[in-house]
Amino acid sequence: MRTLPQAEPHLDESEAEDVFGALLDGEVDEAETARFLCDLSDRGETASEIAGAARALRARLLPVTAPDGAIDVCGTGGDGHHTLNVSTAVSLVVAACGVPVAKHGNRAASSKAGAADTLEALGLDMEAAGRTAEKSLEILGIGFLFAANHHPAMRRIQPIRQRLARRTIFNLMGPLSNPAGVGMQLIGIARPAYVPIYADAMARLGTERTLIASGDEGLDELSLAGGNEVAEVRGHEWEMRRARASDAGLPTAPIEAIRGGDARHNARALQALLMGAPGPYRDAVLFNAAAALMVAGRATDYVGGAAMAAEALDTGAAERLLADWIELAR
Questions:
Q1: What pLDDT sits at residue 201?
Q2: Exposed site from 76, 141, 153, 157, fewest CB < 10 Å?
């Protein structure tokens, strides 16, 4: 078995791709893998390491075809706030607005309920949804790219992540390795100080347009609570900016207002949202959906995007989309 390097010195992009290739190929035992991931996280991953690791994961994925203009909306997870499933709801709302969403997700690794757990509690057969992802993308404009189906190299890594129960570089790699190869993304990251580092990693990989966002309190999505660090990446260039709920005409709210629970709890909240329930959860979804619609070129600003998202909820379009998705996956 291969011994991995210590966290110091930093790895350049090609070295990181080689190291993570060995890790993903099973050339490193579990104890050494856990040690390396923890050391790297404690020291802080660099842009070159994140990009190299993502290249290794991309080289080993099983691809899927998505419609032109498809986007992904996801968070890195691992923020420790255990909020309701915002990106999952945003995916439904954005798809109901006519933007294809190739939702890349998984079951919970370091949270109480991941996207797959909550959707399953709503009645979506996740195994069938994964098998029919291309079909549902084509017919409905939404598909769930179950990470386990598209990243076979992750099968030995996932149990290690679950045992560690902490964020690692794999939280950062996932959003950069969408199996549909989408060129547009809204990515929430749990560490605001890492937004420029992550933007640099995305720029090294290249993208049509990606927004990377983090709430000042370490939320892995646009937060209503206060300010947000946001990076816009186009091609191989990126720039930083700030965003607040008021930019979308929305009120502030503390994180506690969208605190989640297990899959059943989160599913009930999401169902209520789709049925028109007002409150901070709806506002958080509108804020993040507005950003996604801007990424997709459907809205020019947060206010316009939030209005489009609100219409998708208020007309029942997002609720009908979920019902159609559940029916298609039966």
A1: 98
A2: 153
47 labeled part of a ligand binding site: no
Taking CA atoms, 317 is separated from 7, 18, 56, 59, 77, in Å, by 49, 46, 38, 37, 27
pLDDT over 90 at 243, yes or no = yes
Q: Is 315 annotated as a binding residue?
A: no
Residue 112 annotated as lining a ligand binding site: no
At 148 the pLDDT is 84
Alpha carbons 293 and 133: distance in angstroms, whole number: 21
As to burial, measured by CB atoms within 10 angstroms (0-12 exposed, 13-18 middle, 19+ buried), residue 137 is buried
Residue 54 in marked binding region: no
Query: What is the reported pLDDT for 7?
Result: 67
Structure tokens at 128: 């069938």
* 72 labeled binding residue: no
Give the CATH fold of the 71-146+170-329 domain.
Answer: Pyrimidine Nucleoside Phosphorylase; Chain A, domain 2 (3.40.1030)
What would the pLDDT profile of 1-45 be if each residue is shown by its tens digit? 788 777 667 899 999 999 999 999 999 999 999 999 999 999 999
